[in-house]
Design goal:
By secondary structure, the chain is of the alpha+beta class. The protein has two domains: 30 residues; 69 residues, Beta Barrel (OB fold (Dihydrolipoamide Acetyltransferase, E2P)). 26% of the residues lie in helices and 36% in strands. Strands 1-2-3-5-4 form a five-stranded mixed beta barrel. The radius of gyration is 20 Å and the shape is elongated.
């Protein structure tokens, strides 16, 4: 009987640990903490609409293949740091089904 209780307790602990780890990974991915910055090239900037068109490589935290796509920016002032035609590094997250740039900078700029 004690062995059975011990086994059940160990299985419960392992399951709890696995679920906790998965939740932390998902939360970190949503905040852009796990994935490195993605490289891309600015194709178009619409400061008034708070949008930027990027041709980019794979976005690992979103499991997105390389493509050209229009993104919203979290803060329109982020667009002041980049120019059309410039190589950039950026972080994007999925906010309720909408892909939003949280950070963007010229590729040659040092990280903050």
């Amino acid at each position: 009987m004690k062995v059975r209780i011990l086994i059940v307790s160990m299985v419960a602990l392992i399951c709890y640990s696995a679920v906790s780890a998965a939740v932390l990974v998902v939360a970190a991915q949503q905040d852009g903490l796990v994935a490195d910055m993605t490289e891309g090239v600015v194709r178009k900037i619409d400061k008034d609409a708070g949008k930027i068109t990027l041709k980019h490589g794979e976005i690992k935290n979103l499991n997105m293949p390389p493509m050209t796509m229009v993104y919203s920016v979290h803060d329109k002032s982020l667009l002041d740091a980049v120019q059309t035609g410039e190589k950039v590094k950026f972080k994007v997250i999925n906010e309720g089904g909408k892909f939003v740039i949280k950070e963007i900078r010229p590729a040659a700029a040092p990280p903050e």
